[in-house]
Amino acid sequence: MITVADITSAYGRKQILHGISFTAERGECIGIVGANGCGKSTLLSIMAGTLKPKSGQLLYYGRTAWSDAGSGRMRGDKQVIRSMTGYVPQENPLIPELSVYDNLRLWYPNKKQLRQELEQGFLSLLGIGEFSSKQVCRLSGGMKKRVSIGIAMAGMPPVLLMDEPSAALDLICKEDIRRYLLVYLERKGTVVLTTHEESELSLCSKLYIMKDGRLYETDSRLRGDALTGRM
Amino acid sequence: MKQKLQYLYIEIKKTFRILPRMLLQAVLLLLLTGMIALGGVKSMEREPLTPGADIAVVVREDNMLTRMALNYVENMESVSRLCRFRQTTEEEGFRLLDKGEVAALILLPEQLVEGIMDGANPTVDIYFPKHAGLEAMLFRELTEAGEGMLRVAQAQIYGADDTAQAYDLTKQLSVMEAEIDSYNLAFALDRLALYDEETVAVFGSMNVMQFYLASGMVLFLLLAGMAMYPVLQREPSVFRRQLERQGTGKGWQCFCQWLCGVLCMGVLFGLLWVVMALAVKFFLLASEGMPDTAAGQLMADNAFWYPAGVKMGIAALIVMASTAFVYLLHSLAGSRTGGILLVFVCSVAMVYLSGGIVPSVFLPETMQKLGERMPTAYLIQAAGGILAGSGIAVGGEDVAALCFYTVVFVGVSYFVRGRDRA
Q: CB–CB of B6 and A78 under 8 A?
């Protein structure tokens, strides 16, 4: 279970997030929508441990990731965040000069495990095995995104954080990623994603709208104008 | 730790993947700098400038004494370097002067030599064009200098004559005049005797060839840093953050990138060394070991072929400091184009300030002082040490300065990259 409690964040004097709170259970997909610059990526960065919140608490399956309890000073446990989460940022964290396999080697130090994943694990499900020898700079956007997801899945974390995973991808690729997420959810993984895509919203069991750094729960069946009207 | 070593392994792999392309770019750069250096060597070995100004001379009385005197003056070093005498008639001389074909016209009177010897001192008329060019101006300076010298010699003779008269020493006068004549002739024949010899060590303890080769090496290594962009670039922030998430901190990332840069620079240095060794061998064979040639100058200490442990150490220091410098510039620039431009401008400017392009004595004093403390000055000194062997001492100050700059550059790069959260 993920517990986000009263998380705040600021860049200098500018307050970005105002007391964000929500919870997510195993096998649940949480969708966060909102206008550009409303703080969605900041929230995911905090949850992924790449940004420090100003205050609040974050728990992954009962283990504290961020907390300001007691001392009043924000403390993070990088080990908890690392072992519990996989993070797919908007841009792909890849080295273009190297092959897909070499890129994966950076995040999968165990060669044997990587081979297994490529042959019959999540990486094969993503279809990465078919182009693992290709140089990253020669891949399409969709292929790169799949590799990014593959990287995030190193160590099989129970929580997957995805920042607009389908942005600028073609329909086939979007569908592939959606199918992959369904499998992940079936295996009781938890997904938190920010998105503008309706196909991804259909995966979400809970939907939140972020507006001016505040999070509002809304009906997960809302689509189109009804949804944008609330943003 | 495994994750960190994995990152280092991947960075090294990336470096080796990029290396062939980088070497190709470096070879092109080497060819370019090689051609410039060859041009420089050729111009250094070129004969002095041939006389530029034609001077018309009209001899009103053509006898052996006058011809000898004219021949003597014409062959004086200071005159022969600047002008050529053309004997002509008075009418033709003025015509040439009017047409601007000669820079000056000299009219030598009759009884010139005899007049000088008996003290009658007949006048030599020299005509210059109304709008004198550079050659005419130089010749005017030359004649004024010659006139000044003659005036001094005459004053000495008259002074000696008056003194002899006053003290009733006329019997000794001929001896005194002979002494004065030989004294002045000695100066006239050997102008260098007029000057005190002072050696200005523009290149320190290196000779010209060693100094310029050392500064060329440094400039090449720094400029090759332009091609090292893929290795030393500021990685995208998303990649760095992912690495940090996985436990590979900023410090280790910086260190690994710098280390891979050192690897590249080391390979480039090796390549440069091989090219230089072959070039020296070629020149030595071509010139049969003549000490006056460029290769001969380089081999002055006969140490080029003996790479010792100390030389390897100095080479490693040069490679580390150069990489740190280039790494800092790429960190500051933050983009490919910016990095390449910054490396080019800073490298050329700093080598220039250190006297690697134009000797530093020709630079303003402030720039000279600034140049002495530039990292490039220490790099050139260290490179000179490798080239010239035992002849050049790479002192503790140089080693300390290079270590200091390496640490500072890598430290500042870490700070700059750490601040970038965009």
A: no
